[in-house]
Design brief:
single chain, 140 residues, alpha/beta, five-stranded parallel sheet, 5 helices, 44% helix
C-alpha cells in the first residue's frame, strides 16, 4: 500500500476524478495521506508566439476558488482526511513537480481516449507517466 497518493482532478472531468479518488481510498495505508490536486492551467504560458492572449487575473482566481470549493465537497463526500492543493501552470509539469516535492509514492490520474488534438500536443496522462518521479496508475 501507499503512504502518500496524489490525485489530480480536472474540474471538467469530475466523474473521472471521483473514480480515481475511490481507487486512492482503497490503496492508501492507514494514516496515509491523499492529496487532491487541481491545476489551473496558465493559458498565457501557451501563447509562445502563436497567439497573444491575456487572461485576467480575476478569471484565474475564480477558477482557483471554484476548484477549492469543489474539492472540499469531494473530500467531505468521501471522508478523505487528506488535503487540497491548487496550483497554477501546465498540468503535467505541475503534477510531476508536486510528486517530487511531496516525495509521493503514487500518482493516480484519470485518462480519456485520445482525440486528434492529443496526437499534436500529447495528453497530460502520458506526460505524467513519462516524467513522474514516482509510480503512476492511469485509470481509463
Amino acid at each position: 500500500m501507499y503512504k502518500k497518493i496524489i490525485v489530480p482532478i480536472a474540474m471538467d472531468q469530475l466523474e473521472h476524478g471521483e473514480s480515481v479518488l475511490r481507487i486512492a481510498e482503497k490503496l492508501i495505508d492507514e494514516g496515509g495521506e491523499i492529496i487532491l490536486l487541481n491545476v489551473v492551467e496558465d493559458l498565457n504560458a501557451y501563447a509562445q508566439g502563436y497567439m497573444i492572449v491575456d487572461f485576467p487575473l480575476e478569471m484565474i482566481e475564480e477558477s482557483r476558488k471554484h476548484a477549492v470549493k469543489t474539492l472540499e465537497a469531494l473530500k467531505t463526500k468521501h471522508g478523505i482526511k487528506g488535503r487540497i492543493e491548487i496550483r497554477t501552470g501546465g498540468a503535467a509539469g505541475t503534477i510531476n513537480a508536486l510528486a517530487e516535492e511531496e516525495n509521493a509514492d503514487l500518482v493516480i490520474i484519470a485518462s480519456h481516449r485520445p482525440g486528434l488534438i492529443d496526437y499534436f500536443i500529447g495528453s497530460t496522462a502520458s506526460r505524467v507517466v513519462s516524467h513522474c518521479p514516482c509510480a503512476v496508475l492511469v485509470d481509463r
